[in-house]
From TrEMBL:
Taxonomic lineage from the root: Eukaryota, Viridiplantae, Streptophyta, Embryophyta, Tracheophyta
Domain of life of the source: Eukaryota
CDD domains registered for this protein in UniProt: SIRT7
GO molecular function: metal ion binding; NAD+ binding; NAD-dependent protein lysine deacetylase activity
Assigned EC number: 2.3.1.286
Cofactor: Zn(2+)
Keywords: Metal-binding, NAD, Nucleus, Transferase, Zinc
Pfam family, one: SIR2
UniProt-recorded name of the protein: protein acetyllysine N-acetyltransferase
Main location: nucleus
Annotated residues for binding of Zn(2+): C75, C78, C100, C105
Organism per entry: Zea mays
EC class name: transferase
Domain Deacetylase sirtuin-type, first and last residues per copy: 1-200
């Protein structure tokens, strides 16, 4: 049963086994990414606020989030969007604690999640309507089709000669108008579709970011310095993927190690100006990550200045993605940029914190349980063990629908 069905039956809603910020895209999320890359899928319309479509890597310009995104802020003036790795503190299009980073703007940001009385965002609605009208096939996946006006959008394609296919556990009010209805698990059906199309479901590889700052001031022959481990979204923004940070000095037994347990992570020390040292930061990950920790080495010499640089972020992320996929493990990290000022050094690092495989040929890494009350998700790892033949389970009518169709979901 889905959440709404459980509520109507007076039954309790299951608790999520993971925090919202650690939710993992389902098999279907990742399949949609590949369907878009292959040219089958043209647009996705989502009523979810969990950010999983963007987290999966689906293109923002081909996605309409009708009810907003719990991890996204927007500038009301210049319309710049800011995707965060933590849940925004407010809902209902209210002001948040942060401001637009554009020096020519600086307006207070707003959350994007609608409250009950808020109107749907016109930009998202216009795009969704346009694509529904032009689609020759609309797939309705894991939705009860009861929330207006979104529930009526798929029918727009019918008026223009298109068709509608519905995949949901329970019957929907629009079943009679659909050309195909499948009552079943969305993941299982989509796995069959991918098999029929000979498309491989890509793994989900998550990269998180951390900012390291070392500020110092001179005090006779000593240096007083402060280390901060913070979010790239601001000094006060949370780091949801970090539980603690251990700071050690392997080559300096006179400097004691310390474990920083409270955010914002900060350490103050005084050391000799003439004695360089090597600092090792062990980042201990929180629950929901696929490994326990990752380490960053930092050679410190206050008498020498390092070069500043900024690397191509997209290129670095591709390198991390390829390394994690090739090595079938996580914890890889790369530095994206470094800025050196007379009294401070700041660097930003990308770290692979999770990898989930969905393809039946890859059994090395099983996806973690992600019970976020979404009845459309099943456990791909279980299907691997059982050896389910997705190709043979694909309904014949759906095989017909897959011929030369441009899909909207």
């Amino acid at each position: 049963m889905g959440v709404w069905t459980l509520q109507r039956a007076g039954k309790g809603i299951p608790n999520a086994s993971l925090p919202f910020h650690h939710a993992v895209p389902s098999l279907t999320h990742m399949a949609l990414v590949e369907l878009e890359r292959a040219g089958f899928l043209k647009f996705v319309i989502s009523q979810n606020v969990d950010s999983l479509h963007l987290r999966s890597g689906f293109p923002r310009e081909k996605l309409a989030e009708l009810h907003g995104n719990s991890f996204k802020e927007i500038c009301p003036c210049c319309k710049t969007e800011y995707l965060r790795d933590f849940e925004i503190e407010t809902i209902g299009l209210k002001d948040t604690p942060r401001r637009c980073s554009d020096k020519n703007c600086g307006a207070r940001l707003k959350d994007t999640v609608l409250d009950w009385d808020d109107a749907l965002p016109p930009e998202e609605m216009n795009l969704a309507t346009e694509h529904c009208r032009s689609a020759d096939l609309v797939l309705c996946l894991g939705t009860s089709l009861q929330i207006t006006p979104a529930c009526n959008m798929p029918l727009m394609s019918i008026k223009n000669g298109g068709r509608v296919a519905i995949v949901n556990l329970q019957a929907t009010p629009k079943d009679k108008k659909a050309s195909l209805v499948i009552h079943g698990l969305v993941d299982k059906v989509i796995a069959g579709v991918m098999s029929k199309l000979s498309l491989r479901i890509p793994p989900y590889i998550r990269t998180d970011f951390v900012q390291l700052t070392l500020r110092h001031s001179l005090k006779k022959k000593c240096v007083r310095w402060t280390l901060r481990v913070t979010s790239i979204h601001g000094l006060r923004a949370p780091l949801p993927f970090l539980q603690s940070v251990k700071v050690s000095f392997p080559e300096r037994p006179d400097l004691k190690s310390v474990v920083l347990k409270e955010q914002p992570f900060s350490l103050q020390r005084e050391t000799s100006m003439n004695k360089p040292f090597f600092m090792l930061l062990t980042l201990n990950f929180s629950d929901g990550c696929s490994c326990l920790s990752s380490s960053i080495g930092w050679p410190v010499d206050f008498q020498k200045r390092k070069d500043s640089f900024v690397r191509d972020r997209a290129l670095v992320l591709r390198e991390l993605y390829s390394a994690a996929q090739r090595e079938s493990c996580i914890g890889q990290q790369e530095i994206l940029e470094r800025e050196n000022l007379p009294r401070a050094e700041t660097s930003i690092h990308g770290i692979v914190t999770n990898i989930v495989r969905y393809d039946t040929e890859d059994e090395k890494l099983a996806p973690p349980k992600n019970d976020l009350m979404n009845h459309s998700r099943s456990n791909p790892a279980k299907r691997h063990v059982e050896g389910t033949d997705c190709h043979s389970s694909l309904p014949k009518k759906l095989k017909y629908f897959l011929k030369d169709k441009k899909l909207n979901c």
